[in-house]
Queue: 2 jobs
Job 1
Amino acid sequence: MTEGALLHLARRFPLLILQKFNQADEKSSGGDWEWFVGSRRHGWIAFRIQAKRMDGLRYRQLDHGGQLPGERQYDTLLRDSAAASVPTFPFHVFFNGWSSGWPRGFAWNACPNGTTFPRCAHHDMSDMGCSLLPATTVRDLHRSSGRKRLRVATYLPTSVPWSWLFGPPPKRTSSGPGPTGWPAGIGGLSQLLAWHETMAATLAEPPPSGVNQGGSTRDHSPAEVLLRRWAELLGQGAVIPEGRPAERLPAYADWTLKHNLRERLLRDRLDGLATDAWDFHESDDDALRDQDQQTFGTPSTLSGLIFTPWPDA
Ligand SMILES: [Zn+2]
């Protein structure tokens, strides 16, 4: 499922670079894939993602053990992400599906205005087919939910569509900002970093009481709180993140990116594309040719890497 989703993305957005690895063992990094966002000019941030699929309204794989004794997979993911040289945000992506309609009694957490499905104009139901939660939230919910720790109902009412990795949703049906007045989209890479700091802090809080009841019994959904907080931050002027993008990719990612860019250059002769989007220099080519003889182990034993260029404003 992961492979299918990533291939679909890479085909739909040809600027993305996807590198698959033939490694089934995901234990040492805790992640299924790593997603680097940035450029040589802007620097880099990363998402490391552990995917879990729904199985009869349960995420049974959440009980899987991690790399070290006593660890769950999410512990490994959190520990290894914190040690990364690039600011790395650990997430779970849940693959969901239902035979008919949105499941009854599950709160809809994909609307900044608190509108419930199906009236919400920000997302289709299918946008929650790949739902997103910070791995810290998943850990806390899993640890505190006892017999409900594998239930989809424990996680989905706090989850958002995975497109929120790249910022809050634009309104689907009309142009311009929605009624809450937040500006759609994200500016610089630093702003994306701040967005993730805000998302991690907000979605890590315990959900408001009654969040699992759905509909009008709730006060504010986690998504509403997140978007309101984000709008306040933007309203204060420049958003200053706690962290900063890393200047360099780790060696395995740097090599993977350059290798892919060179292949693209050779294959498509799209010099303009590669130099604009990735700041790829011809001089790298020689160095790369030498490096090409080397084999880089992927220390994290991920099954894939994906790169998203951050455009110049
Ligand atoms: Zn909505």
Job 2
Amino acid sequence: MNDSSPCDVLVIGAGPAGTAAATVLAQHGRSVRIVEKSTFPRYSIGESLIPYCWFTLERLGMLDAMEAAGFQKKHSVQFVNPDGRVSQPFFFEQHFDHPASTTWQVLRADFDRLLLDNARAKGVDVVEGTRVTDFIREDGRVVGVHTANGASGEFRAPLTIDCSGRGSPAVARNRWRVSDDRLKRIAIWTYYRGAVRDPGRDEGATTVAFLPEGGWFWYIPLANDLVSVGAVATSDYLFSETRDLATVFDREVARNKWIEAHLAPGTRCGAPGFDDGPLYVTSEWSYRAKQCAEDGLVLAGDALGFLDPVFSSGVLLALVGGEKVGDAAHAALEADDVSAARFADYGAEMARGVASMRSLVYAFYDPAFRMRDFIRAYPHLQGDITECLIGNVFRDFTDLFSSIDAFAGRTNAAS
Ligand SMILES: Cc1cc2nc3c(=O)[nH]c(=O)nc-3n(C[C@H](O)[C@H](O)[C@H](O)COP(=O)(O)OP(=O)(O)OC[C@H]3O[C@@H](n4cnc5c(N)ncnc54)[C@H](O)[C@@H]3O)c2cc1C
């Protein structure tokens, strides 16, 4: 397929959602073209995977490439108080006896390039360095995209899937963005070489280390002696004294003894291969799109919605969303019906999965909610919490979330 040849589906963006959608469609025998604004490898944040990513990676035929890439293995998650006290690590395999319970910490430039190479190998056409600026609409439905820079002009297809992440042109153009006011947070992050790595199976653990006023650090050990570390909190809290990123970051490091001690022997650096570090910042982020589709266009991954990253759910939701939208798109093309209505079931299923994760994120930020006390009150629901946290988000969690609401209501009323 060359740039101007027709295809069944256009995919905007070559992140995990876009490459998963395109690969699944190619596996169904569809002709697919990804239009990506960057030239790979390109920098991205979102480095800690969770166990259920394994199943989509298996379907995409990526497991051998993941093994060969030498990514840091991740077996567990732990939580750390500001005074440095560490919780009992939670090992996934204790709950889930399956190869998926060993997951990965990835440099996204490498991980996303592997996903894109795999898509190409499965027959997907990829146009890099080309930004989608708008949609072509005819007779009230989307029939392609306009592009700027790189291959300028337009691409056409019966169906377009917008997987362009948090800057989605579909969300912006249609004014579909609904911000989540309960999750207004920003992040400042960087990388260290030579920082402390815990021994043995704990080496690849994600650590969530608490800060005052509901803030927290991530500490994600990557391969080759690199650590990704970032502070997440409200912008009012982080920028209360200064907007100088280095000053703010260093101040917060000093507020968590575990983070301070782990970073002490290390040297701050930017992400390898990219010289725009060493400190990165992102804006307030959590939102969902009001609609998942219009006629001829459907959304997946961060374009459909973005959830605070405390439980590392973004890549999972992007991969699974890409897989599900790929199947739904193939079925729509089979039926010769790419109307928005064809994607209603897909949209409802994704909304349910994201809502499960969102409920746990709300609980995490509720000052009156203590997970330990909740599990003491509802021991039979511990398994459900774990299922959600490892990424099995499409189960029925009605009992869990009504119990969390009841428990939070009681503790909020008492406090
Ligand atoms: C601070 C922070 C920390 C995070 N930590 C984690 C974590 O530890 N674990 C985790 O799972 N998730 C994490 N996430 C979330 C994760 O980064 C995302 O959920 C994930 O990358 C979404 O994948 P995607 O494919 O939907 O979008 P993206 O990965 O954003 O990919 C979108 C692609 O579209 C391209 N694009 C954008 N606009 C256009 C356009 N107009 N035309 C053409 N191409 C375009 C981009 O260049 C990009 O390649 C974090 C997010 C943030 C902000």
